[in-house]
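Dear all,

This email documents one entry for the complex benchmark we are building for the journal club exercise. For each entry we list the sequence lines for every component of the assembly. Then comes the predicted three-dimensional structure of the complex as a token string, followed by one or two observations. Please use this as the template for your own entries, and keep the labels exactly as they appear.
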Amino acid sequence: MAYCVDKSSVFGFSLETGISKDRESSKRYLSNLRGMVANEAVLEEMIKKENSLVYEFYEMGVPEHPGDLAFGTTICYPGKVADEYFMTKGHFHAILDVAEVYLCIKGRGLILMENPEGDCLYEVLTPGKMAYVPKRYAHRSVNIGKEPFVQFFAFRADAGHDYGTIETRGFRKLVVERNGEFAIIDNPKWGKN
Amino acid sequence: MAYCVDKSSVFGFSLETGISKDRESSKRYLSNLRGMVANEAVLEEMIKKENSLVYEFYEMGVPEHPGDLAFGTTICYPGKVADEYFMTKGHFHAILDVAEVYLCIKGRGLILMENPEGDCLYEVLTPGKMAYVPKRYAHRSVNIGKEPFVQFFAFRADAGHDYGTIETRGFRKLVVERNGEFAIIDNPKWGKN
């Protein structure tokens, strides 16, 4: 062949499970949701029984340059803490004014979003659907289905993460089960931590 | 429900075919490859018979802001012009210093890349594999398989496209079939248009 460098197989994952054999995922367990769920008593009971995996994600290590893109996959497992669906912690970007795109590969979930002014959005995702998180919106993935909720994501590589704001004050809304379907309700503990 | 705006179903497509019912795709036919293939005589014969669809793509209309992301899907159909596989025209970004990410959903293809200095790269993609087009690299998708090659893509929304450079001078390399497998060879017409 003519001189052309093969860069294949940089990163891949199963479109069925979201799992990659190419690298280690970052894992978040029930214990990582302490302080983030509505019913802390039920959470503690669950942790005593088994500190289950709630979600895991793979992120490509790219330079934090405004011309680069961070990308990877996230898998949120099905389950609930009391009536509140399993979810990721969620975050703002450290550079607030950048967007993020998600593509659902498997399962059924939603992206819950809010901006600093308190506007709240959500998008329900099934395989093939894309969610666009607008600039300035914190976002969290929530599994409202019965199988793993697998997504591909991409955002500007210099955007960074601000987890602290959400860890401190929570999201304004909760996603809970009501009569077998999801409902979005006000978070009674919002801003009170 | 508490006040939270439903932004669902913004855009979705079939993970089997890449086709979306939500909007119209941009389509490129054999006639759009005039001046871009090695064997123009065979191309003209094929067009006379049937001006087949070579590829189509869906692109989200987002503001051309450095904090936004352009994203969508591209479907390159299987086929060859003589021994040269069906491919997209390919482009640099108008802002040269931005990357692009691709996720293969279906089929088998490759991304062919080159920078202005003449360095050439490629990545072979199968479902679940991701390709990262580094900053400053022109890129083209090539279907080296027997079914549609479907990819999801994302890049910084202000990056723009420069198709002209490739249209004028071509890629330095061609992707052709040799004994049932792909081979990358030097483009004898490179820079001579």
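Observations: The longest helix of chain A spans residues 40-49. Chain A has a mean pLDDT of 92.
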